[in-house]
Amino acid sequence: MTYPFFEIEKKIQEFWEKEGFFRKKGKEKFYLLEMFPYPSGKIHIGHVRNYCIGDTIARYKRLKGFDVLYPMGWDAFGLPAENAAIEKDIHPAKWTKDNISYMKSQLKRLGLSYDWEREIATCDREYYRWNQWLFLKLYQKGLVYRKKEDVNWCPKCKTVLANEQVINGDCWRCNSFITTKSLEQWFFKITEYAERLLDDLKLLGKWPENVITMQKNWIGKSIGCEIFFKEEKGGKIIPVFTTRPDTIFGATYLTLAPQYPLVEEIEKKEVREFVERAKTRVSPDKMEKEGIFTDLYAINPVNQEKIPIWIANYVLMEYGTGAIMAVPAHDSRDFDFAKKYGLPIKMVVRAQGSGVGGQEREGAYEGEGILVNSGQFNGMSSKEAIDAITDWMEKNGMGRKTINYRLRDWLVSRQRYWGTPIPIVYCFQCGIVPVPEEDLPVELPLDTKPGQNLREIDEFLNCKCPNCGKDAKRETDTMDTFVDSSWYFLRYLTPNCDNLPVLKKEADYWMSVDQYIGGIEHAILHLLYARFFTKVMKDLGLISIDEPFKNLLAQGMVIKDGAKMSKSKGNVVDPDKIIEEYGADSTRLFILFAAPPEKELEWNDKGIAGCFRFLNRIYKIKVRGSEDQRIRGSEERFYALIHKTIKEVSEDIERFHFNTAIAHLMEFLNEIEDGLLTKDIFKTFLVLLFPFAPHISSYLWKEHFEGRIEDEPWPSYDEALIEEKESTIIIQINGKLKGKITIPSNLSPNETKKRAMDEIKDKIKGEIKDIILVPGRLVNVVVS
After folding, report:
1. Among candidates 601, 599, 575, which has minimal Cα distance to 586?
2. Alpha carbon of 301 to those of 248, 325, 397: distances in Å?
3. DSSP code, position 158
4. For the residues 6-35, what does the mean pLDDT come to?
5. Which among 333, 331, 336 is positioned nearest to 347, based on CA atoms?
6. Which of 292, 349, 503, 599 could make an SS bond with 369 (beta carbons 3.0 to 4.6 A apart)?
7. For residue 651, how far is the Cα from the chain centroid?
8. Alpha-carbon distance 63 to 26, whole Å?
9. pTM above threshold 0.90
10. To 10 degrees, the CA torsion angle through 704, 710, 712, 718?
């Protein structure tokens, strides 16, 4: 008889909804959170994996007595909804709301134990009102500014991108080549927090090491020297940052970024044409390195040598000062460029014990060594010379010690409709005027056509100045949707608060998030911005913590047909169909059993069928009292086995080894040959199963026992009982299974072999060559 999963799961979900188990209080808080989803229409198995991992932890922690906060919401603004609205001629608000409704029903069908009373959607006015409020607070602190700058422009998405959203020269969302545009844009001054963002990485708990490394590399702290080159004719200072001032005497030309301010003054036709071509943003590692001579020269301050100034497409304005001193003998990119354009190569660092110089090599020598051709610093080691030359230049006004960061300020303006309106007014008399807090929110108009820009909506665009009352214009850019996700974890704490984005009392109790779960693809963008916002909100007195997420679990991707599961690849598995065929518990069980959470999961329909059979066996277990003669003989062995299983499952859940925890439950079930168990052992087994397959566990508990499994404590184990008194020995002949025996665990090797031989003596055909014993596990008889 197959267990009726549809009826069971429907009944149990209604029971949970009515009883409100997911808001049960405990002794110690545990804030559990998954990265909230974009409401794209339907969840796929990749989503299911993320949420099943979280739900398993939530249920386990509740049984362990924790006060668990486990909310869910929707990252609801953004380009996908707007693009879908344009394509389908549906307003993005309707598209988004319909998707939220359907996806929510899917999550509920999986039996996920979210506290839906805390649900938020970032497109709701009561949420984005606080985006605007926080924008104004940052503006008041001098952390928001507007300037005209060449910015990353995605021609397909038709909007600007922050530097973090350009991946190898491509748009992070649509993979289009990025070009540049010169636009007035709003920026958050995240660079003010660069050192804190770097230093506070030490405050984190269990984060994947590669994620911490990515954060460090993106912040990119470099200690070095800023050297003051001077343009020969006009005398303008061209500052250059370098971590290798020991090579300054080997600088044979300067290279400028195409966007460098000095370049704008050059009217040479060939230069202007080159600059326009160079505006296509391709990864420096992929591009063909090209340049053009400006007809200008710079003076090297350490030796007064006149060196040519070039513009190069591989020099980026975002890093350093936008100008590089080229030392081709000791930098591979400079070497390739110098070879291509016939520029001089001058060796100034010689490898110790070698007379080989840069101009005599096939490539640049980038290591440390002894200085040559470097004036009074000849003979010094590179390490000594870095400090000595820096001090000398600083003393003589040629440079200064400095710290440089790769991190650049966060560009938050977006030229799209479906986002948070920026609360700024442009008055013809007063200039830039922030919208007063009491006038928030600046509402996004919903009476629009798909694809319409805020600039085209007169009712929104035209307004009165809050200062002077005269005619003014609203800002028509909206905020980067990463603003929405940079503090949403705090809004869950007080989702209905109407006087602050979060109440400090609640934040002091719940924060930081104890366990955060999400994809590795957010290692830079979302996590960095969330860390920045947390520090800003602490400085505003709203919260007390420095870091938002104590522990981070980055789950692996779901793979199907050799590729990441995604709509664009057409290899998505619809969880609704799986649930209809096998039920929610089988789906959850397979997702957790198939692979450790941090590893890739290869989808396999056969695997879920096996999990379904496992639950069928559990459904058919017969429960008897310990007086039942058929099971009294094996009762002691089962007690030892269940205590061993408690220990194994508990330890595995704590380590997020859900696959092996489920394997231990399967191993226990395999020992029940006649399908009989005592009540107390079966009760324990169901509690161990509950975090993984909660519907069938809750149902069987109600069928056989008093009370509710949701109120049960997590079982403890007795170490003394776990010490096995008996072992099951597998018996093989030439590696093939021929029988089993159960023996005392302390039986001698010779006696073990003797009993094994007695068990299979009638099956031996041929001469015995050897008897191999693996203590406690098997006896293999080798026969000729």
Report:
1. 575
2. 9, 12, 9
3. T
4. 90
5. 331
6. 349
7. 25
8. 9
9. no
10. 90
Q: What are 486's two structure tokens?
A: 């940079």
Cis? peptide before 441, omega within 30° of 0: yes
Q: Quick check: bond before 512 cis, omega within 30? A: yes
194 neighbors 187 (Cβ within 8 angstroms): no
Give the H/E segment covering residue 58: helix 45-63
* Rounded Cα–Cα distance for residues 22 and 14 (Å): 13
For residue 452, list its beta bridge partners: none
Interval 667-706: pLDDT, tens: 999 877 666 788 899 999 999 999 999 999 999 999 999 9
Structure tokens that stand for 285 in this block: 């590692």
Tokens of 456: 């085209």
Whole-number Å distance between alpha carbons of 598 and 278: 40
Question: 129: how many CB neighbours lie within 10 A of its CB?
Answer: 19
| Most confident of the ranges 8-22, 359-373, 409-423 | 409-423
In one letter, which amino acid is 285? D
Cβ atoms of residues 113 and 59 within 8 Å: yes
Which of 11-25, 368-382, 425-439, 555-569 is least confident? 555-569
H helices of 301-456, where?
A: 332-341, 382-395
- φ, ψ of residue 710 in degrees (nearest 5): -65, -20
Q: Which residue has the tokens 């200008």?
A: 296
- At residue 361, the pLDDT reads 54
In angstroms, the Cα distances linking 500 to 119, 442, 496 are: 17, 16, 10
Residue 710: strand, helix, or coil:
helix
Residue 14 has pLDDT above 60, yes or no: yes
Residue labelled with tokens 């459904």: 619
Q: b/e map of 368-383 (b: 16 or more CB within 10 Å)?
A: ebbbbbbeebeebebe
pLDDT tens by residue, 720-756 = 877 766 778 999 998 888 888 888 776 778 888 888 9
d(Cα 530, Cα 527) in Å, to the nearest integer? Answer: 5
Locate the DSSP E strands across 189-288: 221-231, 237-242, 253-256
Please give the single-letter amino acid code of residue 464.
Answer: K
Tokens at 323, concatenated: 């100008």
CA distances from 704 to 14, 160, 617 (A): 19, 61, 16
